[in-house]
Design brief:
The complex is a heterodimer. Chain A is an alpha/beta fold. Chain A has eight helices and nine strands. The radius of gyration of chain A is 18 Å and the shape is globular. Chain A starts with 9 loop residues before the first strand and ends in a 6-residue tail after the last helix. The chains are: A alpha/beta, B mainly alpha.
Chain lengths: 240, 234
């Protein structure tokens, strides 16, 4: 159990999202508890990214609701998100890391300390003064992670953070994710890399055509998937 | 042709000698246009950025009006400011008509819409890219404005150049509200117009060359800054 000062669990109730009359997600009832990473998987177009944006509050639900059941106030300030394509400001690596801290009104010394610690965590401390947008793809994604980690969020949403990275960069990102999870940050991450799910997941949310087909512990998901779709997905068959 | 050549030679001599009246005219031109640029930037840049990040009813109307005002004829702007500042106008008691301040106001009015409209265009693209991430950080639209202005700073340099170009090149507005008074409100463009109609081509040419030189120099400087920025930000 975490300390009582928590915004978790995160609960959705009949959550649905419709874009221009097209249903993207429907009837999502999920409870996300503190603990090991939750991985959201499913074929392209299953609604993974939309689900993360709804949970993070970037999209407003068309139906149902997202509720933070923990006792701690201001849940919106205790979460962060990293996107598939990192959005880096046209500033130095350090300035990028400082930006959200300043926005959160964290004092100068404290934010500088946190930013540098986060950059060390992702192995970018030596590049602090470099222009962020001159970094390689893998470094950019690590910087996005550092920027989110510096905020010290209780829950961190990662939307396919490794989708456009090579294996070495993917491995670096996974190590950082594992470290953050080990420190008690709840990770909610989408991916379509099953190997990554095996390496990181505590539990798995399997989405197909906008609905949650399974939400089970990872071991159980791989050993005995309950739905036919998940079985074919695990076999590597093409789902649509 | 002979006339032109000799006028050209005299013009060069005037510049080389650092003629005092020429220098005075050039300095006043720069002072008026740069001050107008500064005032217009203080209003136009944040206004353009705010239009880039906000969505509200009536926004499209404002955008269209701003775009239309980009083509505001200088003489019309001059006339409107003249009516405001003339002795019987609402701002008449300030006694600003036929002063450099009036010229600053006229040029600022002329280029504020240009700066705002171009800033909106430049920053809208940047906002498309940043919006989701900034909202994730909990930044309000108002807080996004300084972020976009800073991150778009090198692109905005071009916007400022356009504004400066328009201000320093226009004749109509400063002629009407400044009055082209020698030694007081005579700037390069009004002097060129006057000297040309008087037939004093060398002075007109000399001022014309200096005006061109300033415009080129400013653009070279801006290009250099942009190149340096490109190397830095990638």
């Amino acid at each position: 159990m975490r300390a009582p000062d928590t915004i978790l669990p995160l609960r959705t109730d009949g959550l649905g999202f419709t874009a221009g009359g097209v249903p993207i997600l429907a009837d999502v009832d999920l409870t996300i508890e503190a603990g090991a990473p939750t991985l959201v998987i499913g074929p392209n177009g299953a609604g993974k990214s939309v689900l993360l944006r709804l949970l993070h509050g970037l999209l407003a639900p068309s139906a149902g609701c997202v509720a933070w059941d923990g006792p701690a106030p201001n849940p919106e300030r205790r979460q962060a998100m990293v996107f598939q394509r990192p959005v880096l400001l046209r500033r130095s690596v350090l300035a990028n890391t400082l930006y959200p801290l300043r926005l959160a009104r964290i004092a100068g010394d404290e934010s500088e300390m946190r930013a540098r610690a986060a950059l060390s965590l992702v192995g970018l401390a030596a590049l602090a003064d470099r222009p962020a947008r001159r970094l390689s793809g893998g470094e950019q994604q690590r910087l996005a992670l550092a920027r989110a980690a510096a905020l010290g969020p209780e829950i961190l949403f990662l939307d396919e953070p490794c989708a456009s990275l090579d294996p070495a960069a993917t491995r670096a990102v996974e190590e950082i994710v594992a470290t953050l999870a080990g420190r008690g940050t709840k990770i909610v991450m989408t991916t379509h890399d099953l190997g990554q799910v095996r390496r990181l997941a505590g539990d798995v949310v399997f989405l197909h055509r906008g609905r949650v087909r399974e939400h089970t512990p990872a071991a159980q998901f791989f050993a005995a998937p309950a739905s036919a779709e998940a079985t074919s997905f695990l076999r590597g068959e093409l789902l649509w | 042709m002979q006339d032109l050549a000799s006028a050209f030679a005299t013009a060069l001599a005037l510049i080389a000698a650092g003629d005092r009246s020429v220098a005075q005219i050039v300095l006043l031109s720069l002072r008026v246009s740069l001050t107008a640029l500064m005032v217009a930037a203080l209003v136009g840049l944040p206004l353009g950025a705010l239009l880039a990040v906000t969505r509200f009813p009536g926004r499209r109307v404002i955008v269209v009006v701003l775009n239309a005002l980009m083509g505001l004829p200088p003489v019309v702007a001059g006339l409107l400011i003249y009516l405001l500042l003339s002795r019987s106008g609402p701002l008449g008691p300030l006694g600003l008509l036929f002063t450099p301040t009036a010229m600053v106001i006229a040029q600022a009015v002329l280029i504020t819409p240009i700066l705002a409209a171009l800033t909106r265009q430049v920053l809208e693209g940047l906002w498309d890219e940043y919006a989701e991430q900034l909202r994730s950080f909990g930044a309000s639209a108002a807080r996004a404005v300084p972020t976009l202005l800073w991150d778009g700073r090198f692109a905005l340099l071009t916007v400022l150049l356009a504004g400066f170009g328009r201000a320093s090149a226009e004749v109509g507005a400063v002629m009407i509200v400044g009055g082209n008074i020698e030694g007081f409100t005579r700037v390069m463009t009004t002097a060129i117009a006057l000297e040309t109609s008087k037939g004093d081509l060398p002075l007109a040419l000399a001022l014309g060359m200096i005006l061109m030189l300033i415009v080129v120099a400013v653009n070279v400087l801006a290009q250099g800054l942009r190149d340096a920025a490109g190397r830095w930000t990638g």
